[in-house]
Amino acid sequence: MSRLPRNSAVSGWRLFGLGAALGLALALGACAEVEEQGDKPIQVEIPAAAPRTLGVETPASAENQKMIALFGGEYHDPAAQQFVNGILLKLAKAGDNPEQPYQVTILNSPVVNAFAMAPDHIYVTRGLLALANDASEVAAVMAHEIGHITARHAVLREEEEKRAALISQAAAVIESRQKGQEVEAVERRTLASFSRQQELEADEIGIRVMAKAGYDPYAAARFLTTLGRDSALRSSLFGQGSDVSKPDLLATHPSTPERVERARQVAQEYGPPGTGITDRIAYLAAIDGIMYGDDPSDGSIRGTTFIHPRLGFLFTAPDGFVLENSAQAVLGVKAGGREALRLDSVRLEPSVTLESYISSGWIDGLLPSTVETLTVNGMPAVMANARAGEWNFQVAVIRFQGDQVYRLIFAIRSLDADAEKRFRASIESFRRTTPDEVQDVKPLRIVIVTAQSGDTVESLSNKMAVADHPLEHFELINGLTSAGPLPAGEHYKIVTD
């Protein structure tokens, strides 16, 4: 909570979002509305997630600061920053405009993402740096973003969007409403195809630039492959099927296998595999100690427990839930999405009672007979059940302090006594943190280790401070595809706390 919006990318490498993998439409979006619907007797304000900038700024500077704020702020790591600056300098000299003073910002986001803002800003997340395995892979990402800038993709896409909107509006006015909707659907597919073509073009430009700069041109295909694996692992954690090879007519990016194959074909024009530098050892040294996963100041997930040191609360989800901290809420799923939860917060005037708020219409299908007033660890609370379609919900609102109210919503198809007991226990786990608990929350970090004789993928993965699937995460962040012995003296990333 109070973190980055997951869908703020301008272009490029955000192929897969965990919000999508959650499927959290969550049934909460589809079956029981959790936001206000029209005019309600009680008005609720969602707290702003991003800080505001102050002072006199140019439009470009203001947009830059806004983008940085949306992604959790700038991540400060001198070694990593110096290293990516060096990569960008080489790429700029090899590009079509060697005098262009590009600048790169590392964003404090665990999401694997990179994007560009014309004319000279490139952004990469620390999540992307943690996933990449050498300098050439990071060069591939930044060269791809340079490709978007030099090909003026943002301008062209804006023009295409305006054209599509104009055609749709004209069709709706001149012809029937149904015909207008048909035209709009065609234009949406055309726009998605246009965007996919831009991605392939940026890949090609990027590979040409990075190869000219001396980097391994096959790195683009390698990193795209890793992105596909990352998506598949995240989907499996949340019980969602993942078929990255299946094209989506409305997807704005080509399917990963298509991009990988195209990237390899372009790379072959510059020589066989092994052409160019990777600079792996220097890169790993540069990211040694970089933060991994969520920034604890925005909330930390440890197994089924979520703790927010800055806001001062924690709660524990029922056993078997996998949690994800998103921009406006903590989301969770269990059993392939057959159970789900959402924790978020709203501002509610102290004069408004929780009983009147829970019945005010912000969640559909509320069963008035189930409304119950209780106290949760010294805090006033109200709990109730709701039903919408094939889904059942257990809902709780807890007044944390003043106008700060937290909402816990559990969704399940069949709300039996066992489920009610598990959900109630989770609701009753919500409490204020202690000073010691806040002090104990530390960020996870990438640490580079050297394999010793006898080390295996399994032995090093056992050192990973990752609750779910440590072996798979170790293989993913190190670009490994099979378990077993590791060559002594080789360097690997592990996640520690």
Blueprint (SSEs and pairs):
Blueprint: H1 18-22, H2 28-31, H3 59-70, H4 78-94, E1 103-107, E2 114-117, E3 121-125, H5 126-131, H6 135-150, H7 153-174, H8 177-212, H9 219-237, H10 256-268, H11 280-287, E4 291-292, E5 300-302, E6 305-308, E7 313-316, E8 322-325, E9 330-334, E10 339-347, H12 354-358, E11 372-376, E12 379-388, E13 391-401, E14 404-412, H13 417-428, E15 431-432, H14 435-440, E16 444-450, H15 457-461, H16 470-477, E17 491-496
Parallel strand pairs: 1-3
Antiparallel strand pairs: 2-3, 4-16, 5-6, 6-7, 7-15, 8-9, 9-10, 10-14, 11-12, 12-13, 13-14, 16-17
Explain the overall architecture.
By secondary structure, the protein is α+β, with helices and mostly antiparallel strands. Among the domains are: 73-286, no CATH class; 443-496, Roll (Membrane-bound Lytic Murein Transglycosylase D, Chain A), CATH 3.10.350. Helix content is 39%, strand content 19%. The protein has 16 helices and 17 strands. The strands form 4 sheets. A 7-stranded antiparallel β-sheet has the order 8-9-10-14-13-12-11. It has a 4-stranded antiparallel β-sheet with strand order 5-6-7-15. The longest helix has 36 residues, at 177-212. It is elongated and about 70 Å long. Keywords: Hydrolase, Metal-binding, Metalloprotease, Protease, Zinc.
